[in-house]
Amino acid sequence: MWQRYSRQIFFPPIGEEGQKRIGRSSVLVVGAGALGTVLANNMARAGVRRLRIVDRDFVEESNLQRQILYDEEDAARTLPKAVAAVEKLRKINSEVDYEPVVADVNPGNVRELMAGVDLVLDGTDNFEVRMLINDACVKQGVPWIHGACVGSQGLSFNILPGETPCFRCIYQDPPPPGAAPTCDTAGVIAPIVNIIASIQSAEALKLLVGDREHLSRDLASVDVWENSFERVDLSNARRPDCPACGERRFDFLEARTGWLLLSMCGRDSIQVSPPPGGKVDLVEIAERLGQLGEVARNPFLLKFRADGREMVLFGDGRAVIKGTDDEAVARSFYAKYVGM
Ligand SMILES: [Zn+2]
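Above: query sequence and zinc ion SMILES. Below: predicted holo structure tokens.
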């Protein structure tokens, strides 16, 4: 049993005791894109007990350049990323308990997603979701490790509630839409993703084995094109008036959840999310839509083409509507074909 982990056990800061601790730990990876696939790969190979992977998206050809757990077949099958990732990880390490979750992380489900986890790893590409993770983690005292990449740059820092500044101490409020560059507008190259997710993974291992002394209290910033590797000291960055860790006001966690519309930047598409807890019958809807347009379905989602647009509808009622960046158009397309 220990043969698999022998190289990690020979490494003195981990050792047999550390390996046992890793083998008892539960980790949540939020987002199974570029960062998330590297994170999940490293955690599964390291031998965590339980790995919960949540992602709202499905595999597309443009992901394959950097999202290491996917292949052409996954894209052709339009598999949800959480499902495709776990399918691959089971072949890599079958000893781990995997929990794939195909969902959008929102204030209504974040507590449930975090239940019983020792650590949260950030593989998202979205500021609002990070603020939400931050609120949930600070409130419950669960550590999380932030990572972000765009172009050839990336950064990472640890949020250890009660010890380090939290995400909101550093960023305060989300930038207005369109203000920050994203992978969809500025691109991203695979090497920076691997570096940042690897820094996050190393910090995760330190945390899981209980080596808090070696945990980084800095912000690591890397630009692989400009040959820059920097560390920014965050020891004075904690703000006593931070709404989250200072005043313990969790605005993002308490946000009202109704219908959410989210423009998927640079992709000419809108995500329509019904209030949490909804479920749709994909078989029944596929049958009905088959008379109105072109339908393809797998057990997790259906693809529907009509009126010059394409919709991908997930089992939780969430849909991504392609071919428009107008929320009203997306909402009425959804209402017309799925219902309210
Ligand atoms: Zn704070």
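The longest strand covers residues 144-150.
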